[in-house]
Amino acid sequence: MRRTTAPRAAALAAAALSPILPVLLGAGPAQAHGAPTTPVSRVYACSPEGGPAAGSAACRAAVAANGAPFTAWDNLRVPDVGGRDRSTIPDGKLCSGGLPAYRGLDLARSDWPSTRLTPGGTLRMTYVSTIPHTGTFAFYLTKPGYDPSQPLTWDDLPERPFAEVRDPALRDGAYRLTAKLPADRAGRQVLYTVWRNSSTPDTYYSCSDVVFPDKAAAAPPPAAKTTAAAAKSPSAAVSAPAGAGTGTTTSAAPARGTVAASGAPAAAAPASTPVASASGAGAGPSAPLLAGGAAAVLVLTGGATLVLRLRRR
């Protein structure tokens, strides 16, 4: 009797659970739907699957503030938002979506694992997901002058996203999204991604820390330019530093009245500098030599005339 009772009891239990089994599974990890892995989001970087980034100082602090590891990195979702993001998600809690289980993601730090981007370039996002859904991805980028040492607020983000992608296809377990980045960002910023599902009542939120080149480092040095006066007059090209007014440094003598780098007055340059003829006819003597020869001829001629006069007397 015992041998037949156990299997029958198991069968009866399975039959009793079968109607509610999908509901139980739906409430568990099967409802986890994704997060950005490129540019890496905070929740993924600090998860057990985040690789070396998970051991960073920022991630260790986030896990400590959280009180638990970010094992469910693909389940940061808030139901029934209905597009009311700014009134539903409190300031300072944008990265966690206001969920206590992810509060460590809201720490104001400037050392979160980050991804380098190019101003005005193309954003290429990989958003890993386990279940396909319809909906719209909206991309926000913190405004110029964003301070990462302060909690992220809605005022740090523009009113409208810089790009949106609607109903992309899920391929090989990920959505691959592209968008043109704003061209006026520099330094450390936050890429804030909002995925508003239309096939479920859920909205997903994520923070990806990104770094743009500083404007000073990105701007090329100005090229030296030759002024129109220097191009027309050879003497001007010698006396005026090439590239004057362009911010470049030259080895030509400083103009009269300028101060050298050491602070002492620079030696005054001559008002003009003799320059060889640009025509190339330089075989004859120079003007000073011609003038001296003429004076010598006059002296000799005058002397001969005086001797003749004395003989006639």
General description of the model:
- There is one protein chain.
- This protein has helices at 2-17, 21-26, 42-45, 57-66, 85-88, 215-218, 228-232, 234-239, 287-312, and strands at 35-38, 77-79, 114-116, 122-128, 135-141, 163-166, 174-180, 187-197, 202-212.
- With 313 residues, the chain is of the alpha+beta class.
- The strands form two sheets. Strands 2, 3, 5, 6, 8 and 9 form a six-stranded mixed sheet that branches.
- Strand 8 (187-197) and strand 9 (202-212) form a beta hairpin.
- The longest helix has 26 residues, at 287-312.
- The protein starts with a helix and ends with a helix.
- 23% of the residues are buried.
What would the keywords be for this entry?
313 residues; disordered N terminus; 6-stranded mixed β-sheet; 9 helices; globular; 3-stranded antiparallel β-sheet
Summary of the model, kept short:
This protein has 313 residues and is of the alpha+beta class. 26% of the residues lie in helices and 18% in strands.
